[in-house]
Amino acid sequence: MDNQHRKIVGYRELSQEEVDSMNVIKDMGKRIDIMLDEMPKDADGRWKAIGKTHLQEGLMALTRSIAKPDFF
Description:
Strand content: under 5%
Helix content: 55-70%
Shape: elongated
Low-confidence stretches: none
Largest sheet: none
Number of helices: 2
Structural class: mainly alpha
Oligomer: single chain
Radius of gyration: 16 Å
Distance between the termini: 26 Å
Order of helices and strands: HH
């Protein structure tokens, strides 16, 4: 279904520039995930998990800064 976001409360139509920026962030997330998978096997798992969570939060914050949803 095209434009499903129109049916989700709180989301708005994005400009092409915004869509392109969101796609750059999403691509960066994929690249970070690959980098995390390639980390040394003896890396401290706890710190790796913390780092991964913080990176995910950062990427999510960046996408929200572009999407500007009108809800909490």
